[in-house]
Specification:
The chain is mainly α and 323 residues long. It has a domain at 71-274. The protein is built from eight helices and no strands. The protein starts with a helix and ends in a 16-residue tail after the last helix.
Length: 323
């Protein structure tokens, strides 16, 4: 091998290595460029997807939060209107009972203290007038007992017990409206449930084996919302019914315990006045006059003379002869 050929081989080898390294470097640079471009595109697409998904989720959340009540009212229909009216009635009734069925209003402490002070001062008439001017349960019960004290203390106690029972029954009758709402709520909800299922099965019957999901969901949502609303009304109605029945029983007991001692304090004054009236002397009777001897009527005498032929009536026995 000559020098010239050696230099040519070296040059050829150097050229080949250079071309190989150049191609490798070019391929490497191209690969890096493509990888960088891909990462940028993927990052951009990921950011776009994230923003799109976040905006979609936010819009979906906003749409769901805004349209839930509207969807509930629309799905409930006329069943929802009836249940809404019942709920308003329930709220008003519970508020009225909470204000009126209170122990402080059934037994006013100021009234009980005032009546006790008047009775201790022997002012029985003023105490009774104070009871008559008040409309509380305590005044009604104790006033009924005082009015019957003239027949004795047992009669007054019976009258007081009857008045207490009558007032308690009147209050318990009002609580039956709560029981009515608690009973009718699930029944009306069940009517809505059946109605909604009928609507759902009607869609299946009309469209066959491939019904539209939105139309099918309308009937199912009607059924479920009606059931939910009926149960939601029934639970508080039953709770407040039991709550106010227990409060009325407690009120009746408190009235009886407060009125019994005062009735016994009223008894001496009423019984004493009745006894004084019974032992007072009777009023003098008017003088009796002797009745005059009745005289025959002139027409009767004329009729008797006409019957005897004009002669005076004869005596039954002849006169005695003179000796």
């Amino acid at each position: 091998m000559d020098f010239g050929s050696g230099r040519g081989i070296a040059a050829a080898v150097a050229l080949t290595i250079g071309l190989t390294l150049g191609a490798t470097a070019l391929d490497w640079n191209l690969a890096l460029a493509q990888e960088a471009a891909g990462e940028g595109a993927s990052a951009a697409s990921a950011s776009i997807d994230d923003s799109a998904s976040s905006s979609t989720s936010e819009s979906a959340d906003e749409a769901g939060a805004e349209s839930f009540l509207h969807w509930m009212f629309r799905a409930s229909g006329w069943i929802g209107v009836v249940l809404a009216l019942m709920s308003f009635y329930l709220i008003a009734l519970v508020a009225w009972m909470a204000l009126n069925f209170r122990i402080q209003k059934a037994v006013p402490r100021a009234l009980a203290r005032e009546v006790r002070e008047l009775v201790e001062q022997k002012r029985f008439g003023d105490a009774y007038q104070r009871l008559a001017s008040d409309r509380s349960l305590f005044a009604r019960v104790l006033g009924a007992g005082v009015r019957k004290l003239s027949a004795g203390l047992p009669a007054g106690r019976r009258a007081m017990a009857v008045a207490n029972e009558d007032a308690t029954m009147e209050m318990e009758h009002r609580t039956t409206y709560l029981a009515t709402v608690g009973t009718l709520g699930p029944m009306i909800g069940l009517v809505g449930t059946v109605y909604g299922m009928i609507l759902a099965f009607r869609v299946i019957a009309d469209e066959g084996s491939t019904p539209q999901a939105d139309r099918l969901a309308e009937g199912i949502s009607t059924a479920l919302f009606a059931t939910l609303e009926g149960i939601a009304i029934s639970i508080p109605a039953i709770y407040f019914y039991s709550f106010f029945r227990n409060r009325i029983a407690r009120m009746s007991l408190e009235v009886e315990m407060a009125a019994e001692p005062l009735l016994e304090q009223f008894a001496p004054g009423v019984v004493k006045s009745e006894a004084t009236a019974a032992t007072s002397p009777p009023p003098p009777s008017p003088p009796t006059t002797t009745a005059a001897t009745p005289r025959p009527h002139p027409f009767a005498m004329s009729a008797a003379l006409a019957a005897s032929g004009g002669a005076p009536p004869q005596q039954a026995l002849p006169p005695a002869e003179n000796e």
